[in-house]
Write a structure and sequence with these properties.
The structure is a homodimer. The first copy, chain A, is an alpha/beta fold. Chain A has eight helices and nine strands. Chain A has an eight-stranded mixed β-sheet, with helices on both faces. In chain A, strand 2, helix 2 and strand 3 form a beta-alpha-beta unit. In chain A, helix 1 packs parallel to helix 2. Strand 9 of chain A pairs antiparallel with strand 9 of chain B.
Chain lengths: ~210, ~210
């Protein structure tokens, strides 16, 4: 899959490295072009960098992994995203990370869908901390990555990319269920930084068929 | 610990059995007294049944495990809960279970705290399905039970009761964090009944100290 990654922080950079290691072609973009170049260099020879519009045009799938305050601008800069698989892991976190700016009657993912018009938005990767995405401290332990969206094909793509990043995909249904997944981001933040557990925390979904 | 359990369904009944097995004294109450009697019989010789007011007076800790539509009445019927450890696992679910009635700017647990005056409310057990609580399909697999509240002593009691029920307690901070934990209930519902995974689903929190 050709993947445009908008945002070259721990989340975007880490996922890009995982995916590049599986042979996907990557183009990174970032507010600071040097960040995108560094992420591409770290991801290896199948990765390059470009502008936000170039990365969006490059990718069959586009990962949106920018701070919430940059989402509107990033989507605008991306240009047309019609038909793209837009995987969003940007969370509507308040500036101090202590609360969500949007919830219950909407979600960050749904706001992204409104902004991104014809794109087929999938929410994914928000339920694992960027550090876990980046450093895989639970290799082999089966970190679950929940995802949701309204387009079955787009979700199939996202599912494959979750697997290729080394995580266990869990289909969490319709995009509206972002309202359920997004608070789980904030919970990990509270556990890591308020409860003092540190950033190596993640969810595993236990599942056993009923008898 | 002496425990009053208001609500004798899967959740209240199952927890009561676990706790009775650990030697705690239990008093069940339910809208239908026969349900409370049946739960007490199933829990063994350290369990009895009574009215809601009797169960509330009996317990040093009181578990509120009733449908959301019954919460206001149950708290009223309980009488004074001043100083009680009130462990709430009643979720503000819409009648069809497909959404939460309260969220983001408040939570079911906070509404319970408003209704219950001087009680020291702890939210717990809502992040594991009642069937998992009741049947322990993941014995030995470390189901995490998140809990939150504003009173340290009350939380300590809740923590011990989570352990005694056979689950791994995870301190999720202040009661306001119920806004984060409660959507996790709805997510399990979606996974179990919309995504077709069945009711044997639960969360495990993976945690490894950072290097």
């Amino acid at each position: 899959v050709k993947i445009g990654i908008i945002g070259a922080g721990n989340m975007g950079g880490g996922l890009g490295r995982h995916w590049a290691g599986k042979g996907h072609e990557i183009m990174f973009a970032a507010g600071n072009p040097a960040d995108a170049e560094a992420a591409a260099k770290a991801a290896g020879s199948t990765a390059q960098s470009g502008t936000t519009a170039e990365a969006a045009a490059f990718g069959d799938a586009v990962l949106l992994a920018v701070p919430w305050t940059s989402v509107e601008e990033a989507v605008k800069d991306a240009g047309s995203l019609d038909g793209k698989v837009l995987i969003n892991c940007s969370m509507p976190l308040a500036p101090d990370y202590m609360s969500l700016l949007v919830g219950h009657t909407s979600s960050g993912a749904e706001e992204v869908q409104k902004l991104a018009g014809g794109a087929r938005v999938v929410l994914a990767f928000n339920t694992a901390p960027a550090q876990v995405i980046a450093t895989s401290p639970f290799e082999g332990d089966g970190v679950s990555v929940f995802y949701c969206g309204d387009d079955a094909e787009a979700k199939g793509v996202a599912r494959g990319l979750i697997e290729d990043a080394g995580f266990n995909p869990v289909d969490a249904g319709a995009l509206q269920n972002a309202r359920l997944l997004e608070p789980m981001t904030e919970l990990l933040i509270q556990l890591a930084f308020v409860q003092g557990m540190g950033a190596n925390v993640a969810y595993q979904l236990l599942h056993r068929p009923a008898e």
